[in-house]
Amino acid sequence: MEINGRTGFYCLIGSPVGHSGSPAMYNYSFQRTGLDDVYLAFDVKLEEMDAAVNGLKTLGCKGFNVTMPCKTRAAQMADELSDAARLIGACNTVVIRDGRLIGHNTDGIGFVRNLKEQGVDVRGKTMTVMGAGGAATAIQVQSALDGVKKLHIFNREDEFAANTRSTAAKIRELLPDVEVELFPLEDSRALYDRIAESDILVNATKAGMKPLEDVSLIGDASVFRPELVVADAVYNPRETKMIREARKAGCRVAVGGIGMLLRQGEAAFHIFTGKTMPTDEVYEKFFKE
Ligand code: NAD
């Protein structure tokens, strides 16, 4: 397909973006679905964000993805937000329609879909989530929107800890049927007790991610019962120490974060174009190690 005077465009903004796989994934998918669109990546610092987004609007950009450090500002700039983006307070996907910004957050959708691919539905489940940053908040909010029964949230006492309180308050207000409890990650007794009563355990911290690849927040592998579903948001390395130990201990479902990454892109592609991404092909071409 050749670029012409009518070719539409989408892009990624944030900083850094040079390493991103998004342009390859979207451009391949546009071609495979017969769309006359292209996707680029622009390095945009937070202080450049407003000018960049106004420029995208002026140029007729159809939509953009947002990465760090611009996700929160994107939600503030949006004219309209999905429930998830509003509760999370951050957007990774913004559609530009008639000059209006419609913000979404597909990170949590990617997480829930990735579990579904493994035959696991979060509805009615009890879930322990470690983390309070961008990925953790998206996972907690989307799981609550999708019907999780009980959420145990653990985070260490750092600058992210306040997020756990605001996320819990927002979920309790909008989704009063979801029980949310907060704990310090340092309380390993509470962590292991809550895992024992959980169906799903999630790591959405940077523990396990390079250069912390030798770190697992689960020091006692006896918590890994075969029926416990174990999921990591971390995808670099593909198999974190936590996932490796869970598999070794016999957990039937133990998944890393690469599927979440793929599925959040699939969801954003559908929001942008209304079409279905050729996800299996995209995985084979760009995600398979
Ligand atoms: P963030 O900076 O927003 O949050 C960091 C979180 O990690 C906080 O909860 C912090 O308390 C915790 N943390 C950091 N170091 C820790 C340590 N040594 N011990 C315990 N907790 C620690 O980061 P984020 O954007 O939420 O990303 C978290 C992880 O999730 C990263 O590995 C990132 O690559 C991954 N991620 C994956 C996807 C996906 O699609 N799979 C999407 C977003 C993020």
Compact overview of the structure:
The protein has about 290 residues and is an alpha/beta fold.
Could you characterize the architecture of this molecule?
This protein is of the alpha/beta class. 39% of the residues lie in helices and 20% in strands. It contains 11 helices and 12 strands. The strands form 2 sheets. The protein has a 6-stranded mixed β-sheet with strand order 2-1-3-5-6-4, with helices on both faces. It has a 6-stranded parallel β-sheet with strand order 9-8-7-10-11-12, with helices on both faces. Helix 6 links the parallel strand 7 and strand 8 (150-155). Helix 10 packs across helix 11 (279-287). The longest helix is centred in the last third of the chain and has 16 residues, at 258-273. The protein binds nicotinamide-adenine-dinucleotide (NAD). Nicotinamide-adenine-dinucleotide binds at residues 107, 110, 131-136, 155-156, 158, 160, 204-207, 209, 212, 215, 217, 233-235, 257, 260-261, 264.
Write the layout of secondary structure elements.
Layout: E1 8-14, H1 22-32, E2 37-43, H2 49-59, E3 63-66, H3 71-77, E4 80-81, H4 83-88, E5 93-97, E6 100-104, H5 107-117, E7 126-130, H6 134-145, E8 150-155, H7 161-174, E9 179-184, H8 188-196, E10 200-203, E11 229-232, H9 241-248, E12 254-255, H10 258-273, H11 279-287
Helix pairs in contact: 5-6, 5-10, 6-7, 10-11
State the distance separating the first and last CA atoms.
Answer: 28 Å
Which class do the helix and strand fractions yield?
A: alpha/beta
Give the topology string: H per helix, E per strand.
EHEHEHEHEEHEHEHEHEEHEHH
Which small compounds were modeled alongside the protein? Answer: nicotinamide-adenine-dinucleotide
User: Which consecutive residue ranges, at least 5 long each, have pLDDT under 50?
Assistant: none
Whole-number radius of gyration? 19 Å
Mean pLDDT: 97
Helix segment tally: 11
Side-by-side strand order of the widest sheet: 2-1-3-5-6-4
